[in-house]
Amino acid sequence: MNKSFGRKIAIYAVLTFFTAVIALPLIIVLSSSFRTPSNMQSHLKLFTEIDLQSYRIAFNTMNFPMKFINSIITTGGSVFVIVVIGTMVAYPISRIKNKFMRWLYYFFVAGLVIPAQMVIVPVTQMFNTLNIPETRFTPMIMFITCSLPFSTFLYTGFLKKIPVELEESAYIDGASLWVRLKDVVFPLLKPAHVAVIITQGLWIWNDYFFPMVFLTKSKFYTLPLGMIQFLGSKDNPAQWNILFAACILVVLPLIVAFSLMQKKFISGITAGSVKG
User: To which protein family does this belong (predicted)?
Assistant: First the structure.
């Protein structure tokens, strides 16, 4: 009894320590975002003042509503296509047992080890050759392409665990392939959907690289790319309180979204661990 209690105390102590290490930079950023420029040069003191001027300047300067809509369209559209195409690609790979499908699976998995930065130059040249117009959808092409290896790998693993007998029963009842996918397979992939939405959604929302490469018009900028104007220069140093306020504005929608849907996320993650 005492050993078990002591082990729990040790585990909680370790978890508390790592939580504090992770949370401390976020607390410093949040506290600094409320400080005035004159107080930014003083010693660090947490939440000694609450000044919302930095948030007002950051909100107006970066045109937050427009860039928020761009980020929503880019992230939501990309994740939706990734989930649909990832499922469609993984389904035949997991169900058809032949050499072609096996090598097709290896082809997609190989994409996991290829950094996107390695191919960005030829991809950019290809976009220019094809005269692909610059829109808010342009970075989505790269987001979807780079996410397909991971989503295919994940969905294939989940689909292999779904008994084929479930689909055969639906087939006997007269269900078409599309009905079997929509009503039988797709709902059973809920844990995989949650994993893809969280991992790829977070990456796409926070990504700076692809929007920086493919977008030059500010009306198409996403939130991370909109922060570039707060970085400052040699002649115009950055105002850190405004930069920190912009950082909070960028991550705030993610925090709100997860807070509102955390029960669905958790239920989706744990659904795959319960065997009937």
Answer: Belongs to the binding-protein-dependent transport system permease family.
